[in-house]
Every structure is written in structure tokens, then in C-alpha cells.
Here is the input.
Amino acid sequence: MTTATSTAMFLKDLMRRRKRLPSQLAADLGVSHATVRRWLLGEDVPSMRSCRRLAEYSAESIHKILAITGHFPGMKIKEASEWPEFREYARQKYPKELDEDLITMIEDLIERRRERKRRGKSP
Here is the structure.
């Protein structure tokens, strides 16, 4: 998968989760609609400054955003599909309480705890 493709997929997923149109995403990030359009078409990738804004806006780590956009080549990106059973459970058990952003945050916390345990540190 190319950097432009992974960037476009990330942005489309982000817009879906946030229920935003490209023009709304552009306004939220402080960039032009044409810029977001180029990102979505794979013609360009976000600058470092835009990556920082995307990280804040999406509640993702800056490292993940930089990896997705190709500024941090070689970094493994954890896909949400690694947690299908949790996502399905959360959607069924708490359909009104948990939105996609909260589910993603919980998945990240679970992964951090597992990583600490693998390193031998207690939570």
C-alpha cells in the first residue's frame, strides 16, 4: 500500500467516524478544501504541521500519523482490525454510550497495558 493510499484511507475513516465532509474536515484542520481533496485523491500528503493537527484532531499519536503519511517510514501501524471482537462487543453492549473514537481510545489503552506486561512492568 502506498503512502498516499494509506493517508486517503485514514482520512476517509476519520471523516466517517467524525461524520464530516471533506470541506468540514478542511475547516476543522485549518487547511483549504483543495488540500484535503489532494490528500483524498492521493496527489499529496499532509505536511508535518498538518500531521500535528491531524494527530490532535483524531486523538491518534503523532507517530502513527507520521507513519501513515510516509514521514516515518518503516514504522508498524496497528490497524483497528486487530480488535474485531472488542469492537463488536462494544457496539452491541454499549451502542449509545461508546462512539468509534471512544472504542479506539479503549483499544489503545488495552494495547498499552499488554505492552507494559510484555516488558515486565505492572500496569
The chain has two domains: 3-68, 80-118. The radius of gyration is 16 Å.
